[in-house]
Amino acid sequence: MAINENVPGVEAAVTVNGNDLKEYVDEDLEEGNENELTRYIEAEDGANFGIRYEIKRQFIREGEAVTVKTYIDGHYAESVVKPAWKYSGKAIKGRIDSAYINPDTKTKFAFSTIETSSEHGYGLAHDHKLVKKMGTIEVVIDANKRDESKTPQKGHNFVNLEKFHIDIVSEKALKGASLTHGTKMTDEIKAKPRSWPSPRIPGSTRILARFIFRYRSYEALKALMIIPRTPTLVPLEDRNPEDLSPQEMMEALRRSQAKRKSQEETAKKVKRERADGDAGMTPRKAPRCSTNNSQVNAVEDDEVREASPPAQVKDMPAPVVIEID
Q1: Cβ contacts of residue 59 below 8 Å, gap of 6+?
Q2: Given the DSSP bridges, would you call strands 181-190 and 206-216 parallel, antiparallel or unpaired?
Q3: Which of 93, 110, 154, 265 could form a disulfide with 54 if both were Cys (CB 3.0 to 4.6 A apart)?
């Protein structure tokens, strides 16, 4: 919930399904005055939304009432008047999620993606004015006094549906605006007859706070750097040890030990597989040596074959020499 430090007891938030939307701060934005607060929120196409408010009782003076007015895309949407004397000692709180279109019928608010046209000159003059306030939800909370002696004026403060039925916007008019969504009115519902407050006493109004919510798609918020972009994570092993926190040092040590253990187990497994493979091999036959002069010949199929010794040469008689005189 948006809380202004200058008026910490006055709060407002945009809700979807009853839950406050996460708010983002633009650090480079300068607020208009001390009672003004601007926040960015993410818009989801088609989601119905509402505005929740809360005002602590100590901010209201005796005899004052509280008025909460809402403006969407620069157009009046809805308002409520809460007489402070009905909330003696309590916070004034409530929720606005729809607007009266007639005395007993209301319509809900919903985010809607902006459709654009690139046609030259399409609605350009009109759309330039339109986009100035588009994508904003403004909540103005003030304290005022009412003249109870006068009759309430009926027949005013109805939402103008035509202002929210925007089908197409000129693409050129949106240039540089980073707008992605507008608001449409949906789901007409029957409501209890509207109550009309007494008129304000002139000069009695005090502005307590003004909240401005700028709604965009998630991608647009990242492009505007309203949502920080996800940094690229550097593995602990590649970071400078001097930059690591104690917890990161412990994690780096744990990873290193796990890696070393895994490497040791892998080496043992390889060694074991080699040993099992050697044990299963058929041993080669050793060559046999003959005691005689046999020769051992090896053949290609690893068998050993013993060769026969060479034949012995028998002794021949000595030659006869005949001398002739």
Answers
A1: 7, 9, 10, 143, 208
A2: unpaired
A3: 93
Report the amino acid identity of residue 24: Y
pLDDT digits (tens, 9 = 90+) for 17-26: 999 999 999 8
Residues 128, 176: Cα–Cα separation, whole Å: 12
Q: How far apart are CA 71 and CA 136, in angstroms?
A: 8
CA distance 148 to 159: 25
- How far is it, in rounded angstroms, from Cα 243 to Cα 230? 20
Q: Name the strand (E) or helix (H) holding 273.
A: helix 246-279
* Alpha carbons 70 and 87: distance in angstroms, whole number: 22
Does the pTM exceed 0.90? no
- pLDDT tens digits for 6-48? 778 899 999 999 999 999 998 888 777 888 999 999 999 999 9
DSSP single-letter state for residue 318: P
Residue with tokens 């798609």: 217
Q: How far apart are CA 254 and CA 260, in angstroms?
A: 10
Give phi and psi for 215, each to the nearest 5. Answer: -105, 135
Residue pair 57/91 in contact (Cβ under 8 Å)? The answer is yes
Going by the DSSP 8-state scheme, the letter that residue 218 receives in this structure is H
